[in-house]
Amino acid sequence: MLVMKRKIWETIGNSIVVGELSRGCELCMKGEKLVLFITGLCGAKCFYCPLSEDRKNVDVMYANEVRIKSIKEAIKEAELMNANGTGITGGDPLMVLDRTLEAIKRLKEHFGYEHHIHLYTNAILLTLNNALKLKKSGLDELRIHPTREEDWAKVAIAKKAGLFVGIEIPVIPGEINILKRKLRLAEKLQVDFVNLNELEFTPSNSLNLRIRGFRLKKESLAAVEGSEEEALKIIRWAADRTNLNVHYCPSKLKDSVQFRNRIKRIAKKIAKKYEKVTDDGLLLKGVIEWNGNLDKLINKIKKKLNIPNDMIEINTKKYRIETSIELLKEILKMKLPTGARAFIVEEYPIKGRLEVTKLLIRRTQELNSFSESTN
Fold this sequence. Notes:
This protein is an alpha/beta fold. Helix content is 36%, strand content 22%.
């Protein structure tokens, strides 16, 4: 087979590619995909499994980190972010095949055929019959993480079923020759792409990684030392020695790019008129708290400053008045009741509106300083 030396390029998420990037990865980087954790059940025993104890080997479902009980709820979460696709993960989604097939079919029916769906599996349970079912359901990409030698035969099965197939492998330091052999095998099986993931520490796998001698990379909260270096060596080798499409995905991509972009999409969709979406995808606003009659107070503020209803309201769950930062400046010029306090609040645009920052404001100058720092 003739192999031409190919160009290595960098994505918008600062990941590295030789060849072409899969459609699933493109959408993930832009934050356009719903993450559907369909079950924590799994037949593999990977020592580096990153799942938390409340998910590992537990049959639970999450959509973008929100606990759900049905595919209908997953669709609602996808609507919240204007999702252009879905990544189905676990555990192993094939452990709950009927549920997985239902999810694919209903997402396609609801959002249209162009809604791109990829699915991760170790392929232990993959048969030709199951692969054909996945194909018929409308699955766009099947990403296989072979955990046993015999699972490589499942790649051929997936290809036979007509699926677009990728290989997903963590880069374990010290196993570069093993990884090269896997890529040679992937090329022989004519896989459509290979994703190399930087190995990560999590609370659940930390002990397993440390007893094997792995250490945290300097200036990183999760990445394993040496994983990225070996991944880049493999990329250069693949560019010279193979015709594979290979993508190296660093751990920081998930948090600094994928998660932030996904959160920003949700924030822009659900932000109220008085809430500002920050660069990190948080919702920024002004808040007034008081133990007195909020209805009387908000009516007084509206009348005094001629504020429209969609720019100020009472949050009945948190019992407070919410408005924009700019209007909060004007409100602070009024004489508020004794005991009333003003805050700047930043919230995650997820169920429950988790507060990230709550800053007490005593003077309008403090608001001016904060506004300048966020512009």
